[in-house]
Amino acid sequence: MNDQLGTPVQGVTLYSFTRPFHAREYDLESLIRKVAAEGYGPGLEVIGFSSLKGFPAVEDRFAGWFRDLLEEVDLVPTSLAINADIGIHRDRLLDQDELVEYMRPQIEAAAKLGFPVARVQISITPDSMERLVPIAEQNGVTLALEVHADQYASHPRILALRDRFEKVGSPLLGFTMDWGATVKGFAPSRVEAYRRRGATEEYLTALVDLWDEYYRQGPPVDQDDHNGRFGRFIGLAAQHGHPEFGIDSGIAATGLFGPAPVDDWLEIMPWVRHVHGKYFGIDEHGEEPSVPVRELIALLVENGYSGAVSSEYEGWHWNDWQSPFDIVRDEQAVQRSAAETAGSRMVTNPAEARAVLKRHHATAQQEGAAR
Amino acid sequence: MIPDRIIEQGTLRTAGSRASVEVRIPWYRALPASCIEDARLTVDGVTAPAESVRWEMNGRTFTFAEMRDEVDEWWFPVDSAVLSGELAVASANEHTVAVHLSLYIPYIIIGDGEVLRIDEHDEKLMTTKEEVPA
Q1: How would you list the strands of the sheet with B46-47, edge to edge?
Q2: N-to-C CA span, chain A
Q3: CA A90 – CA B105 distance, rounded (Å)
Q4: Testing the interface with B: which of A89, A99, A103, A123 to mutate, by most B Cβ within 10 A?
Q5: Catalytic residue among A22, A89, A148, A242, which?
Q6: Is residue A142 within 8 Å of A361, Cβ to Cβ?
Q7: Dihedral angle at the C-alpha atoms of A298, A302, A303, A305, nearest 10 degrees?
Q8: Are B41 and B53 in contact (CB under 8 A)?
Q9: Of A179, A206, A281, A347, which shows the fewest CB atoms inside 10 Å?
Q10: B86 three-class SS
Q11: Does B3 touch chain A if contact means CB atoms closer than 8 Å?
Q12: DSSP secondary-structure letter at A252?
């Protein structure tokens, strides 16, 4: 527990609006303008390979246009999500030398576009994270490795990264907390999607029960445990005459709905530099039924977190009957209410957000210097 | 995964003995050609012979063998690629167009060095939009 309560900065990732962007209902500019106009900011996160054609190449002219646009609409760039595409070649994985070089232009792109954070991914080893520090320093960008299901904060690979971050002592190394690691139920909207595709009620009940069984057990202890769980979801679908949902439900149950408890995050809390406020839907009471948004916001506030929270709506993968814009609006209302219940508030004013985020990153610099 | 988005409605075209349709990535982010493993084009239950299938993206035309090592040409989420193959398609009628697509997701490693592969399928009913002379 931190002495001072945190004031997290509200924001959104354009990933939440994948469907309307993919459908060409909005282009990058009109989507950014929509985010600003609807008040989903002030924080804005973008995925390079989703939103920027030609990424990681970013022309000066484009970067200027992008920065001017954000300034005009008063949004604050929080994180550029970049990818560790270790499997880009068909016949082999990139080695870590290649992976470091693969990340370099993406980190440079983050700096060029004005993002203080680049979200990086799990395939980067502790050694390689250390090797990326000079690149991060040259560009003034914090590298926040995403802790995402099927990993979780106390997973051995994450603890190995944390221990290395502590040893290296660079303020530019940290984590992105993804709430999908700490989910409390199989998302009802995904159950509804299977129902609409003809799944029987018996199967759907058994599916939710199996996930609940793993929730009670806690997250998988190792890869074998993970694979065993995946296999059981495939078997369950086959057993109920729905083999078509086997792999799909296995991916969701193990890779999207991670069953770690909320306080697992305490293992890495001081290194959390950015947050993906992952969620899957909003119910008839205006609450998120599967992600404990209120507990997670309370945890951040109580631990003095004053960085950005990007609302990351992922239910769009299967939910084609509700507007992602309405769902983001409603989830952010839950976040704000939760922060107030915890005795604080979410920052929604752009100028204040800039100041708070600047301090958030500067504090890491001071703590890094003190270590 | 948004498989319902793969086939662009109303884009079935014929050119001589070939048929083509515009396709969109059923994924949220760009992937390089090397991650597009295979695609099958089926019209009215007849699948184009594998050796005749071509993939046109960013103004370049590839066989799937040529795409295997191509990491510089990317399929961007709002861009259409064109999938074509040898298929006799009578014009004027309504046709059932089916596309099967296999993609590798290069940042998701499952198990021991294995890259996640997703298989997606889409099927739509449409008429040939235009008859292009061969």
Answers
A1: B46-47, B36-43, B94-110, B114-127
A2: 19
A3: 11
A4: A89
A5: A148
A6: yes
A7: 70
A8: yes
A9: A206
A10: strand
A11: no
A12: I
Residue ranges covered by each domain of chain A: 9-182+260-370, 188-256
Predicted confidence pLDDT, tens digits, chain A (371 residues):
557 999 999 999 999 999 999 999 999 999 999 999 999 999 999 999 999 999 999 999 999 999 999 999 999 999 999 999 999 999 999 999 999 999 999 999 999 999 999 999 999 999 999 999 999 999 999 999 999 999 999 999 999 999 999 999 999 999 999 999 999 999 999 999 999 999 999 999 999 999 999 999 999 988 889 999 999 999 999 999 999 999 999 999 999 999 999 999 999 999 999 999 999 999 999 999 999 999 999 999 999 999 999 999 999 999 999 999 999 999 999 999 999 999 999 999 999 999 999 999 988 877 765 65
Using DSSP bridges, classify how beta strands A142-147 and A173-178 pair: parallel, antiparallel or unpaired: parallel
In terms of residues, how long is chain B? Answer: 134
Q: The complex's ipTM?
A: 0.94
CB pairs below 8 Å between A and B: how many?
A: 73
**Structure tokens given for A125:** 């080893």
Tell me the Ramachandran region of residue A98: left when phi exceeds 0, alpha when psi lies from -120 to 50, beta otherwise: alpha
**Two structure tokens written together for A340:** 């107030």
Q: How far, in Å, are A157, A163, A165, A174, B43 from residue A160 at the CA level?
A: 5, 5, 9, 12, 52
Encode pLDDT of B50-109 as tens digits: 999 999 999 999 999 999 999 999 999 999 999 999 998 887 789 999 999 999 999 998
The CA dihedral of A80, A348, A10, A75, to the nearest 10 degrees, is: -20
Helix (H, G, I), strand (E, B) or coil at A147: strand
Of B28, B71, B107, the CB nearest to A50: B28
Pairing status of strand A117-120 against strand A9-13: unpaired
Please identify, in words, the CATH class of the domain defined by A9-182+260-370: alpha beta
Q: Shortest CA distance to A337 belongs to which of A295, A306, A305, A308?
A: A295
For A246, the enclosing helix (H) or strand (E) is helix A246-251
Q: Is any Cβ of chain A less than 8 angstroms from the Cβ of B34?
A: yes
List of E strands, A57-125:
76-81, 117-120
Q: Is A184 helix (H, G, I), strand (E, B) or coil?
A: coil
C-alpha to C-alpha distance for A217 and A219, rounded to whole angstroms: 7
Cβ atoms of A76 and A353 within 8 Å: the answer is: yes
